[in-house]
Structures are given as structure tokens and as C-alpha cells.
């Protein structure tokens, strides 16, 4: 069959079918591998699906429906341009979604924080991926327990001019049975949450009563790029078993506030030697 024998509707439906098959394959990778479980909803998975849907299912078939005309002499050239344009947009979309995929959710100072792969260059991800949390890839940045450790953390933050946790990549470790007891030092403060957002506190209280959450489950704030949640963490399974989306970005309250870890160490820039000028 020559291309000139194909109707506009046939060309559109064929293009739509092929694009839909590609979309299904990429969506599978996004949902089950690149943005699994809670990452999908609050760390970019939904945006990834929308991006791929637009550049794959909407752009290509839409242009075919708009441009395809069996009577045109330049039909082959037009279709080649459409396919090149769609392929380029699809490659860009896949690369963007893949690059932005989450690498780990790090527990530090009362909450889990999602870190993207592009920011995880200093983190040894292999033991985290092989850890007990599976696709959730949960990890922990151990809180400094002495004044010297606190000083070291503060100095490192000063050197980087930021306190973003991914700059401490070499200190981020898998959240396993040897470190899970660190979470016992924190407790979700509903009163503090109520001060920030009353509706969030009400929803959490309703969630607790309706699901009968009790020990050993722990409620821990979870902050990702496109949303916040309260994570229900099971220390026996060493993984998050449920989440409740909230709007406020909070931390759990530290129960050991009188430890040396809470001593603030201020580091000042050294004064310039005016005599050496």
C-alpha cells in the first residue's frame, strides 16, 4: 500500500496506536521503576506521565491529523518532519523525566526528604538500593551526637554556603535495622502542625483514628519536590506502608532536645588581615 492510498483517519489512528504503545511502556517504567510508590504522587511521577503523554500521544498524532493529506506531493516530507519532531520531543521528555527521578528519601532531623538523582552524586546509592526498603530506597543522615560532630556539620554547611542534606552524601547510609532506632528520638507534633495548618492537623487526627495506627508504627513528615505528606513508617518492615498528603512542611519533634546535638555552633568568616594589604 502506497502512502497516498492511506486516508487521514487511517494515518491518525495508526500513529495514535503506535504512540499509545510507546506511552504505555514508558508509563510502566515511570510508575514501577523511576517513581515508585509515594514518589509518584509527590516527587514528580505525575508530571512525568503528563510530559510523556503530551510529547508522545498528543504532539505526533495531532500533527498527523492536522497535516496529513493524501493529495499533497510533499506528503512524505511532511510526515518525515513530523516523525523527527515527535522523536526529538520524546527523547527530550524521557531524558528529562529520567534525570529528575528520585534517588532516595533521607531521614534527618525529624523528617524524610526526597533527593533527585541529579543531586545525589556524593551518595553511595548501591547499598541503599540493596537495603531493606526496596524500591523506596530509604536512607538516613545520622544526626551529630556530640559538639565536635555538630561543629563538623556546621563547618561543612558553611563551606558549601548551604545546608542542603545532599551535600553530606558521604554520610548518608541505608536505613536498616542497625539505624532504625534513631527514629525513636522523634515524635509528630500535632499541635505544631495545627499552628501551621488546622485542616492538616484535623486530617491527620482523622487518619489516625480511622486506621487505628499505634505502636510500633511511626508518623514521620515526608517532604518531596511537589508535595508533603505524613509517612506511616513500620520499623519491623523497615519501610513506609502508607502516606497522607498534607500542605505544611514540618519536622517531627525531637524528644532528646537537651543533648549536645542541639547546641548551635556559629562559624564566622575569618577577618581579613588589613596589615597585609
Primary descriptors:
seven-stranded mixed sheet, two-stranded antiparallel ribbon, alpha+beta, 2 domains, elongated, 277 residues, disordered C terminus
Shape type: elongated
How many E strands? 9
Count of all domains: 2
In terms of structural class, how would the helical and strand content be classed? alpha+beta
What is the topology, as strand order, of the major beta sheet? 4-3-1-2-6-7-8
Q: How many angstroms separate the termini?
A: 83 Å
Q: Which residue ranges are poorly predicted, with pLDDT under 50 across at least 5 consecutive positions?
A: 258-277
Sheet having the most strands: 7 strands, mixed
The DSSP helix count reads 8
Radius of gyration: 25 Å
Sketch the topology as an H/E string, one letter per element: HHHHEEHEHEEHHEEEE
Helix content: 40-55%
Mean pLDDT, to the nearest integer, reads 87
Strand content: 15-25%
Amino acid at each position: 500500500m502506497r502512502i497516498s492510498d492511506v486516508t487521514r483517519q487511517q494515518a491518525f489512528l495508526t500513529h495514535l496506536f503506535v504512540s499509545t504503545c510507546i506511552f504505555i511502556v514508558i508509563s510502566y517504567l515511570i510508575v514501577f521503576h523511576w517513581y515508585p510508590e509515594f514518589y509518584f504522587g509527590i516527587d514528580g511521577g505525575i508530571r512525568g506521565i503528563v510530559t510523556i503523554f503530551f510529547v508522545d500521544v498528543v504532539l505526533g498524532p495531532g500533527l498527523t491529523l492536522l497535516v496529513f493529506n493524501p493529495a499533497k506531493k510533499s506528503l512524505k516530507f511532511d510526515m518525515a518532519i513530523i516523525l523527527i519532531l515527535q522523536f526529538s520531543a520524546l527523547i527530550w521528555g524521557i531524558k528529562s523525566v529520567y534525570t529528575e527521578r528520585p534517588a532516595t528519601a533521607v531521614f534527618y532531623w525529624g523528617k524524610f526528604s526526597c533527593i533527585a538523582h541529579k543531586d545525589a552524586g556524593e551518595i553511595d546509592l548501591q547499598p541503599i538500593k540493596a537495603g531493606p526498603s526496596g524500591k523506596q530506597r530509604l536512607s538516613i543522615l545520622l544526626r551529630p551526637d556530640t559538639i565536635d560532630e555538630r561543629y563538623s556539620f556546621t563547618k561543612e554547611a558553611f563551606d558549601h554556603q548551604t545546608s542542603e542534606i545532599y551535600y553530606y552524601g558521604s554520610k548518608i547510609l541505608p536505613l536498616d535495622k542497625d539505624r532504625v532506632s534513631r527514629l525513636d528520638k522523634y515524635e509528630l507534633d500535632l499541635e505544631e502542625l495545627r499552628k501551621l495548618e488546622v485542616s492538616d492537623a484535623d486530617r491527620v487526627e482523622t487518619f489516625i483514628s480511622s486506621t487505628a495506627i499505634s505502636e510500633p508504627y511511626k508518623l514521620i513528615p515526608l517532604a518531596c519536590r511537589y508535595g508533603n505528606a505524613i509517612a506511616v513508617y513500620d520499623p519491623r518492615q523497615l519501610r513506609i506502608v502508607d502516606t497522607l498528603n498534607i500542605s505544611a512542611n514540618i519536622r517531627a519533634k525531637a524528644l532528646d532536645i537537651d543533648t549536645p546535638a542541639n547546641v548551635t555552633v556559629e562559624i564566622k568568616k575569618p577577618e581579613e588581615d588589613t596589615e597585609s594589604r
